[in-house]
Design goal:
Helices cover about 30% and strands about 20% of the residues. It is an alpha+beta fold. It has one domain. Strands 1-2-3 form a 3-stranded antiparallel beta sheet, with helices on one face. Strand 1 and strand 2 form a beta hairpin. The longest helix has 17 residues. The radius of gyration is 16 Å and the shape is elongated. The chain binds zinc ion (ZN). Zinc ion binds next to loops.
């Protein structure tokens, strides 16, 4: 869990900053978060997957997991070629 100023402000006041997180998937709102419903964002998601497959030869597949409701990218799930039964999780780069 990441701790930031908002976290401690929240702890002190007991109030959740309004509209900081999406209701459907609890993801933080704001820039830098990708949404598969956005064509430009999807292109970036695809690019990330392609890059990952290029750099990590042990990765067999990579799957972007998005919120079913709003389409926000939550995480990537990769499968490894040597141990395909193992799922490796990756939150970012
Ligand atoms: Zn959502």
């Amino acid at each position: 869990m990441k701790l930031d100023r908002e976290y401690f402000k929240e702890k002190k006041t007991g109030k959740k900053p309004k509209g900081r997180y999406t209701i459907c998937c609890g993801q933080e709102k704001g820039r830098g978060l990708l949404n598969k419903n956005n064509k430009a964002d999807w292109a970036l998601i695809e690019q990330h997957c392609e890059d990952h497959l290029t750099y990590y030869s042990s990765t067999k597949t990579i799957e972007p997991i998005c919120c079913k409701k709003c389409g926000r990218l939550i995480k990537y799930i990769t499968t490894l070629s040597e141990e395909a039964y193992k799922l490796s999780e990756m939150s970012d780069d």
